[in-house]
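Good morning C.,

I know you're traveling, so I'll keep this short. The sequence:
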Amino acid sequence: MSFMLLGILNSQASGGGVASSYELIQTTRLNSNSSSITLSSLDTLTDYQHLQIRGRIQGNATGTSEAYGSWQINGTSLERYHTLQGQGGAPSSGSAANAYFTTNNNNASYTPQNWTNFVLDFLDFSNPNKNSTLRVFSGAKPYFPNSPSIRFFSASNFSTVAATSIGFTANLGSLITDSEFRLYGIKEA
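The tokens, ready to paste straight into the viewer:
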């Protein structure tokens, strides 16, 4: 038992374990408002099994209850998504075509001033024998000031073509300056 414990402690001290296998590949930050952010050349990331994007986005759409955007793989919007959401005291779930993602929640009475923060896992992104699959955990402060929103969703593209790019496009307005994607690679253990 003591040898097993020493082995575990030794692997943690030497940087072993899942957390150490995340490597920052690039940071993309908008220097001006833009309708989209795209990370390209994913096919060159052959050392990694999965990718993770940690980021924040904010839209500048006004006069609407919510503004969304959509994820694209190789320039094509994802075909299907499932979502589980908690907002205030009213949890909800659903599924639909064309996976969407909140950029900001506001209406004519509120100015958008809140970021949507998220962690996106892009699983087996380079495997041409699997459908492209994303899972995203996000949090945002909607236009109801006292009802922040937490969402978990998964989305798929029913194509077995290896991914070369992943992007996000706002459906209304633009993504504002300092919206940011940090791309990490995850190596197979």
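Safe travels,
E.
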